[in-house]
């Protein structure tokens, strides 16, 4: 599951607050409360000493009057005679008297509670046991002080808490920020490599957030740019080769025409020049067509029409070519309505059928059939020509690709590339199967 950077930052913010609160508690407890407890214990010892003196030197009534005043409203006082409780005063909160406290005061030693924690995350409680004697009998004053009421300064605690959370937040977000910036810097470095022509660069990012998605998109972009650059170089090389050949012929035969030659030779050479010029013109038209398709300049102008009638018209259009080779057509074309660009699809049928005619033997057959299914229309065009080797079959839709056999036949190697591009624009697909010497079959599929 992809986790966005925004989600991670929110989680980090919440964790920072929790961590900051815990750290501030630990800090406050160890630095602030320890100081308070020491002061409270000293205060309790002095107060217990005063109470023991008051108890021994004043009458019972006077003692009760003093102990009932607001002076001890935040205290809880218990006076023991041995193990028996005699009187309790002040804050009406009883507390458990440990055996250790009792043993200490019995030995006439002052007891101070030094326990760090009474339970998990609970502050220690200031308790003092002060022994004294009355008529040679052991007595003791045990005092409890409610620290939270008198001694805890909320402003100080808040300031410490805020300071710790700010420091925790700064440290946490500095670490997270460095991690994010490091990934962005790597993308920047990779972009510079792309600008210098290194398209093999790959950004490794194993995360599951927007930056990871950006890295994947970057890698895909670099791969496609590299592939396009390779195609561009091959394109320039192939165009140079294809254009150079007819230009050489035109220049050569034009030079011969300028010298002494018979009228018959002149006609032959002029015809060659005308054919080579037409070849150059067709090559130029095909290059312009590919360029416009690549740049989406040919926007689809779709309309409903009958596909079977269009294919019949193309076959008739190419009659001079197949009639010269005495090729027969076997057409199985049921009435089929299609929603497509008439002009562009006509170019597809011209390119593929013309290709089948060129590579068919004399007195052979070409089979064209339309098959309609619920959601798909299949058009198959099969010839009995020279066929294509398995090695070349995977490259026949590449621009300027010509197998060894096809180089003996006039062509630029762009016809099938143009056809495939138009079919893809119609969200269709084209497949080819062939065997050497047994002909080739093209199957074109469109969604119905």
TrEMBL record:
PROSITE patterns registered for this protein in UniProt: HAMP, HIS_KIN
Domain Histidine kinase: start-end pairs: 238-448
Gene Ontology cellular component terms for the protein in this record: plasma membrane
Chain segments annotated as transmembrane: 9-32, 160-181
Record membrane topology: Multi-pass membrane protein
Domain of life: Bacteria
Descriptive protein name: Heme sensor protein HssS
């Amino acid at each position: 599951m992809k986790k966005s950077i925004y989600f991670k930052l929110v989680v980090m913010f919440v964790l920072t607050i929790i961590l900051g609160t815990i750290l501030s508690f630990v800090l406050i407890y160890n630095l602030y409360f320890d100081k308070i407890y020491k002061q409270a214990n000293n205060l309790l010892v002095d107060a217990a000493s005063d109470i023991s003196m008051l108890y021994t030197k004043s009458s019972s009534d006077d003692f009760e009057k003093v102990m009932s005043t607001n002076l001890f409203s935040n205290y809880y006082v218990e006076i023991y005679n041995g193990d028996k409780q005699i009187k309790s005063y002040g804050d009406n909160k009883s507390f458990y008297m440990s055996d250790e406290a009792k043993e200490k005061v019995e030995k006439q030693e002052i007891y101070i509670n030094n326990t760090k924690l009474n339970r998990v995350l609970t502050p220690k409680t200031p308790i003092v046991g002060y022994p004294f004697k009355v008529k040679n009998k052991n007595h003791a004053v045990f005092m409890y002080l409610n620290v939270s009421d008198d001694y805890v300064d909320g402003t100080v605690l808040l300031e410490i808490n805020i300071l710790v959370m700010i420091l925790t937040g700064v440290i946490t977000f500095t670490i997270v920020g460095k991690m994010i910036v490091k990934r962005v810097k790597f993308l920047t470095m990779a972009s510079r490599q792309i600008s210098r022509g290194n398209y093999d660069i790959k950004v490794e990012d194993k995360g599951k957030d927007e930056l990871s998605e950006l890295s994947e998109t970057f890698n895909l972009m670099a791969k496609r740019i590299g592939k396009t650059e390779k195609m561009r170089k091959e394109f320039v090389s192939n165009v140079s080769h294809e254009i150079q050949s007819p230009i050489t012929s035109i220049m050569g035969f034009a030079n011969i025409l300028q010298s002494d030659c018979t009228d018959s030779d002149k006609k032959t050479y002029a015809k060659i020049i005308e054919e080579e010029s037409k070849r150059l013109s067709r090559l130029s038209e095909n290059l312009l067509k590919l360029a416009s398709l690549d740049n989406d300049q040919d926007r689809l102008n779709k309309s409903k029409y009958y596909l079977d009638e269009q294919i019949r018209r193309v076959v008739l259009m190419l009659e001079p070519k197949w009639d010269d080779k005495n090729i027969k057509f076997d057409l199985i074309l049921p009435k089929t309505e299609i929603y497509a660009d008439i002009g562009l699809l006509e170019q597809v049928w011209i390119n593929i059928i013309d290709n089948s005619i060129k590579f068919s033997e004399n007195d052979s057959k070409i089979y064209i059939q339309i098959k309609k299914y619920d959601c798909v229309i299949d058009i198959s065009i099969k010839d009995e020509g020279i066929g294509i080797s398995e090695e070349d079959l995977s490259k026949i839709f590449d621009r300027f690709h010509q197998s060894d056999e096809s180089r003996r036949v006039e062509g630029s190697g762009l016809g099938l590339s143009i056809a495939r591009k138009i079919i893809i624009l119609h969200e269709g697909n084209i497949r080819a199967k062939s065997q050497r010497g047994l002909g080739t079959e093209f199957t074109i599929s469109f969604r119905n």
